[in-house]
YhcH/YjgK/YiaL family protein
Amino acid sequence: MIIDKLENGAQYAALHPNFKVAFDYLLSTDLAALEVGKFDIAEGVKAIVSDKDGVTAETAGEKFECHNKNIDIQLCIRGNETMGWKPRTDCTQPKGEFNEEKDVIFYADKPDMYFSLKGGQFVIFYPNDVHAPMIGVGPIKKLVVKVAI
């Protein structure tokens, strides 16, 4: 997991071939003007924009998730978002099998820690990072960039 400010995003371009594409997009786009929805940025790089009220830690924990085929770059555009995190290797309570089509598995485990992002900050979740996003009060606008592995 990596946490930083968007203005520093370019320094992570070397970590994955499509990170440059993702961060070039994030740094050159009027993020506040993005409409809610899903769209392709480039081959292997997809985006999901949401703008909704945050939820309790308990509600977010119901979707404590990780992925096998994608790395998430989750950017808080507006609001304050708290997220739960735990290493996948420490999770022992899967809720069902891995869903290949949706690239997700959920866990009943509890996060080891919580951290918060404000507008202009991002987190990179690798497949070993189990996460519970969207914890907060009031509206949170965010962009999740899915980078195929």
User: Anything to note?
Assistant: The mean pLDDT is 97. The CA atoms of residues 56 and 92 lie 23 Å apart. The chain has one domain: 2-148.
